[in-house]
Amino acid sequence: MDVSQYLEIFIDETKEHLQNLNTQILELEQEPDNMDTVNEIFRAAHSLKGMAGTMGYKRMQNLTHDMENVFSEVRNGTVKVNASIIDTIFQCLDALEEYLDNIQSSADEGTNDNENIIKALNDFLKNGGKSDDAPKESAASEEAEAAPAAEAAEAAPAAGNEKWREIKFTEDQLGVMAAAKKSGKNIIGITVNVQETCILKAARAFLVFKSLEELGEIIVSSPSAQDIEDEKFDFDFSIIVVTDADIDTVVKAAKSVSEIGDAVGGMVDLPDVPVAEAAEDKKEEVVEKTANAAVAADKGADKTGKVAEKKKVVVNRTVRVDIEKLDDLMNLVSELIIAKNSLVAAATSNVAGNENTNVNEHIEYLENVTTNLHESVMKVRMVPIESVVNKFPRMIRDLQKKLGKKMELYMTGEETELDRTVVDEIGDPLMHLLRNSADHGIEGDVALRKERGKPETGSIFLDAYQDGNNVVIEVRDDGNGIDVEAVKKKALERGVITEEQASVMSDKEIINLLFLPSFSTAKVVSDISGRGVGLDVVKSKIESLSGEVEVRSQLGVGSTWTIRLPLTLAIIQTLMVNVGGEKYAIPLGNIQTLENIKADEIETVQQKEVINLRGDIVPIIRLNEVLGCESTKGKDDDLVVVIVKKGDKMAGLVIDSLTGQQEIVIKSLGKYINKSKIISGATILGNGDVALIVDPNALI
Amino acid sequence: MEELAVKSELVQYIKIQLDEELYGIDISYVDNIVRPQHVTRVPNVADYIKGVINIRGEIIPIMNLRLKMGLEEIEDDKNTRFIIIKIEQYGKIGLIVDAVKEVVTLDDSHIEMMKYDAKDEATQHFVMGVGKLEDSLVSLLDLNTVIMEKQANKEE
Known about the structure:
heterodimer; A: alpha+beta; Four Helix Bundle (Hemerythrin (Met), subunit A); Alpha-Beta Plaits; six-stranded mixed beta sheet; five-stranded mixed beta sheet; 24 helices; 22% strand; B: mainly beta; CATH 2.40.50.180; 14% helix
C-alpha cells in the first residue's frame, strides 16, 4: 500500500498551485483590495492543503492550513493585506517549495517545521484586530464537532461498529499476542470507518496503517492488507495491533488521518482463543490460509513501503499534452498504416508484372506522412516557456528589496514554445542574466539615472519570440551598459589578455571576455551576482543546448543579451557531403549558400586562405585537413565550398562533393568520444552506416 | 548463469585471443559479440579508438585492444570479433580482438590476483589476475582500467 503512484500528479499539481500562488500574490501586492485575487489565492491554498493532507505530508499541510486561515480572514474582510504579510506569505511559499523539492528527491517532506513562519502567520491573524480568535474558534469547533461523534460512537458500540471482534486469528498470531500480553503490552482491536465521500480510500487506509505502525505492531487486518491496498473494502476495515499505547491513543492516531469518519477500538480478549481453536478444522484451515496470506501481504506491503521510502524516488518527467495534438498524432499514425498497406499492395502487384511508378508514388506519400509525423511528435514535446519565466517577476521583486533599487520586469512572448528538455534547462541561464541585469545593469544611483534622462524605476525586459528555426530570448535592461574600458582593465589585471592584444581588440571582442570563466566586473561581490561564475555558466549551458548567446551594449544606455536556441534537438535537416571518401552531415541551419570556386580564386591573407565572395572576404577551411583525411580531389580541381554562418561571422568549408539534403536523427557519440569538438554527434544512414555530424560553430 | 553470479566464487569469463596470448573478460560485462563491420572513423581521437559502429540503432565506439595494449595492429580476418562491453557509468564500448575462443568458469582457487609495483609497465596493469586452466593460463582483463585509463589519457 503506498501513495507513490499519485506522487507524480501531486508534484505536478503542487508546482502549478505554487506558481499560481506566486503570481496571484504579486498581483495582490499591487492591488490589495482585489477580491478575485484573494479568492483565487484562497482556492489554490485550499487545494494545496487538501493534496498535501491526502499524501500524508503533515508539515506541508500544517503550513498551508495556516496560510489558508490568513486568506480566509482576508476574504472575510476582517484583516487587511500589508507588506509584511506579503513577505511572510512569500517565505511561506518558499518553504512549501522546499518541501516539494524534498518530496521530489526522496518522497519525504523533510523535517523542517517552519515554526517561525507559522508563528508569523498566526501573529498576523492575532494582530489583525477583531479577527483575533477566528481561526482558533474554527479549530475548536472542528474539534467540538469531532468530539460528539466520537462520544456517540463510544456510547453506542454497536456490534456493527466493532468489526474487529469478528477477526479470526491463526495459532501463530495467537502466540504472538499471548507473548505480547505477557510482556505487558496491550492488544487493541480497532475498526476504522472511512467517510463515504472519500475518494482515495486506499490512501487513507494506508495512512491509518502507517500511523498505527508508529505505535506498535500490526498483527492482522481485515480485509487483508493486499485487499485494502487494492481498495477491495467498503468503508470500514479492522486492525489488530500490539502496542504499549492505550486504546485512546490508538483511536486518536487512526482518527488523525483526515477523511476518517470514525474509529472504534477495544481490548482484544485472549480467552477468545479456545473459540477459534474449537472451530472446525476445515474452516480454520481456510482462515489460517487467508490470514497467513494477509500477514504475508502485510509484510510484503510493509517491505515495499519501506523500500519505497528508502530509495530515492526518481519522478518521471511528464509533459501535459493538448488532446488535439494527440488526435493529430493518431490521425497520422493511421495514415502511416494506410501508406504501409498501399506499399504492400503495390509490391504484390509488381510481382504480377505491373509498372514500378506506382511504388514511387506510395513512397512519396509515405515520406509525406513521416515528415508530418515527425512534426507532430515534436509539437507534443513542445511546451511554452511560460512555466520557466513565470517565476521571474517574483525574483525581481525580491531582488528589488534586497538591492534597494527600483525596477520593473516586463515580459512578452511567454507563450513561445520550446522543446521540453530545453525549457527545463533554460531557467538557470535566464535567471543569471536577469540577476546580472538587476545587479550590474540597473544603476543603483537614482540621481545618475535622472541625469541620463531615464525614469527613476529601472526596466528589465524579457522578450521571447520565434525566428525561423530558432527561438530567441532577449534579456534587455535600460541600465548602465557594459563599461568596455573597465572590462579591458580587469582583463589586463587578471592577465587574461596582454597589452598588445588589448590594443587591437574590438569592443565586441572585449565584451565577449565576460563569458570567460572567473571573470566578474562587479566591484563588490554580492550574493546576487558577481562571483564570476555566472556568465561562463550561462554560455556553456546555452551551448550545450546547441544554442548561442550574444551581448550588445552601450555604456550608459543599457545592454541586451540575446539567446538563440534551436527549436528541436533530436531531428534536424542536414546537407550530406563527402570528404575524403567519408560521409559527413552539416546542419542546414548553419548553411548560407553553396559555391563552386575555381582553384585560382583562392587568395591568401595572413597565411590564411580566403575567397572573395561577392565582395565579402570569407576565410575557407579545408574540411579534409580538419578531419584528418585525404581529399579525393586534385590540387587544381574546382572547389565545392559550403558557406556557413555563425552570428555575423562566415566561413567556407571545402568539401569533395555533395550527396544531398537529408533529414537525420541525431545520436550521441557516447561518453568515450566527447572531446572531439568539431563532431557534434552521429546519425545512422539508410544503409545502416554511421555518418558523423560536423558542427560548423566549432570551426568558425 | 544468474545462479552462478550469485555464488561469488564462480565467475565466467569469455576467453579471447590477442596476439599469442589468451585473455579472459568477465562475462557479466559482455553485452554482445559481433563480426567485424564497417567502422566509421572519428577524427581527432586517440589512435586506438577506431571509430564508431551502429548496432541496432545505437552508436558504439570501437577500441582496438591490440593498439591499446601496445601491440601491432593487424588486418581483420575471419576470426576477428568485436566484443561489446557494457559498464554502467560509461555506457557501451566495443573491443576489437583477434579471436573469441570459449567461455570458461573459474573459481577463486584458480585465480591468482596480480600485485603491482609502481615501476611496472603500463600494459601489465590491464591484467588484474591470472586464471589457471587445465592446459593453459588466461590473463584476466581489468576492464575498468582498460577503459578508464583511456579516459584519463584523453583529459590530458
